[in-house]
Every structure is written in C-alpha cells, then in structure tokens.
C-alpha cells in the first residue's frame, strides 16, 4: 500500500493498429487476457497498492471503454474519470488534458494496454526518496531487454540519473539495454512544463517532455523493476498469444487472473491442443480442433472447425468445417470513414 495519497492516470487513447481488425471493433485497452480486459488488470493493480482515484484519456472507441467501466466504482471501489480527446495529441498532450484530475499530488502515469505486475509500492518509495535526497521530479521504471529496436532506451549515469534517451536504436547504436516501460511518477511541477495546446498541439513524453526536462537540468531518475516482474505490451497477435502461453505455463500469476478455460461446453470429441484461452459461454462442437488460440466469450465453434494461432473475439460464430490459421476473427469490421 502507498503511504500517501496518490493519483493515477491510465493511458487509453491509442489506436492499436497492429491488432486490426480486432481494434477496429474493440479499443486496445479492452483486449481480453485471462478473463479480463488488460486495462482492468491495470486498475486492479493500482487498487492493490491503494490507488483508487484514476483518470483516463480516451480517443479511439472511447464510448466502449466508458460503457465497460461504468460500474467500476460499484464493483471495485475505484473512482475512474474519463477525458475524451477529440484528436490524438501525444502522451504528454493526453496528460495535459487530464491535468485537473492530477494536480496537487504525485501522479502515477501507466499504460492501459500493457500487462504488468510491477511492484508500484517499491517504485513509489524509490521516487519519494529521490525527491527528498536529490530533488528529483520524475521517476521512470526501466527494465533490461535484449532487442533495443522495439523499445525506447534510457541512458543513466552511475547514480541512476537519466542523461539521454534513444528511440528504438539498432543494437550497434544502443547506448544501453534498459527500456522505458511507460510507467512514470511525476511531481506536480512537471505538469507545469508541458506547453499549452496552442503552443504544442501534439506533445510526447519520451520525445518532447523528457528532453525538455533534461535540457532544463531537472532531475529525472530511472529505477529498475525487479527481475521477476512481468511486462508485456499486448500490441501484436504474436505477443498476445505468447502472453496467454506465459500464463498457461505458470510463468506469470496475477491475483486478477481468471481461469484460462472458463467454459464447460466442449464436446468430448473436440480437441484443445497446445495452450488456449477459452472464454465464458463459448461452445466447441464435435470434431473441432483449437490450437494455441485466444477465444473470447460467447463464441460458437461449429463441428470440425480447425483453428490455429487465432484470436477470436466475442460473439463470433464459426460454421462447420471452417479452417483458420494465424488470423484475428471478428464479427464485423466497421467501415472506416
């Protein structure tokens, strides 16, 4: 539990284009894993550490986010406010939109579309210690990675003060192998350094705000997360299925996880091969084979259907004999304007 009052912002405005056509129907933070949307896992993580005042920015399919979480106060005791962005304005631009909810205390900023069990209490204590002892204004949670081309890379000095950033550098150009997880603690003064919308309609955190802070000699520290923490951006079909397999293998366990197989309506002649997540009220008919798939709720899989490495969202009906591999199956892809 956090010792002091802390407000949080969950970033939820992204489009998630690499998961299309899934994200043409469902906003990325509502992508389901282990029986809940990934953003719900994040909200329950915040609650675990005593953070129950949360704001979230929306843009793409924001009405669906608001509808899903409309009863989160009653269900979980979390006060969740939404601020809709009429157009994307960058991560710092989104924070700027939500400023009125964040002022007056340390603010925790966390992504709503990445699954993690990071120890927020430990990070917060490291942040407050650096505030008192070094005058730090920002703490960034960092983790070691192998492929720097997929992440923003953080460069620090020997005491952990950030000196530079690199955006997805090639291995030969990388100055470190420490990645930015997108989990931040901001002191209130940092919000004052985000320019107005008139001055900067689009303003990023890593690309704009952090370089400005470094240029103004503001103390920004990076703190390593524990080696055994889990962090995964459910941003591609491959990573989505791999995360489900990590859960099935017991490599990651959250209090918020539900059983991966949540239906009993599976014909005795149907076969589940490899690792799968099968949602509530889903039926699998005789002779069907499902291998390494994520299948949401209320799906009907007909006789002799063959699925491999597929993601099937809620309410899809698959007719007898259909065969699909490496696909995202949705009910209907909305026509884009």
Write the layout of secondary structure elements.
Layout: E1 7-12, H1 22-25, E2 32-33, E3 36-37, H2 38-48, E4 53-58, H3 62-68, H4 72-76, E5 79-84, H5 91-97, H6 99-102, E6 107-111, E7 114-116, H7 120-134, E8 138-144, E9 152-156, E10 162-167, E11 178-186, H8 188-191, H9 205-215, E12 220-224, E13 231-233, H10 237-248, E14 271-273, E15 277-278, E16 283-284, E17 289-291, E18 294-295, E19 300-301, E20 306-308, E21 311-312, E22 317-318, E23 323-325, E24 328-329
Key structural traits:
single chain, 337 residues, UDP N-Acetylglucosamine Acyltransferase, domain 1, 4-stranded parallel β-sheet, 10 helices, elongated
**Radius of gyration over all CA atoms, rounded:** 21 Å
Which CATH architecture of the largest domain? Alpha-Beta Complex
In the CATH scheme, the class of the largest domain would be Alpha Beta
- Order of strands across the widest beta sheet? 5-4-1-6-11-8-12
Low-pLDDT windows of residues:
none
Task: Tell me what you see in this structure.
- The chain has 2 domains: 7-233, Spore Coat Polysaccharide Biosynthesis Protein SpsA, Chain A (Alpha-Beta Complex), CATH 3.90.550.10; 259-329, Hexapeptide repeat proteins (UDP N-Acetylglucosamine Acyltransferase, domain 1, 3 Solenoid).
- It is an alpha/beta fold and 337 residues long.
- The protein is built from 10 helices and 24 strands.
- Strand 2 and strand 3 (36-37) form a beta hairpin.
- A 7-stranded mixed beta sheet has the order 5-4-1-6-11-8-12, with helices on both faces.
- It starts with 6 loop residues before the first strand and ends in an 8-residue tail after the last strand.
- It is elongated, with a radius of gyration of 21 Å.
- The longest helix is centred in the middle third of the chain and has 15 residues, at 120-134.
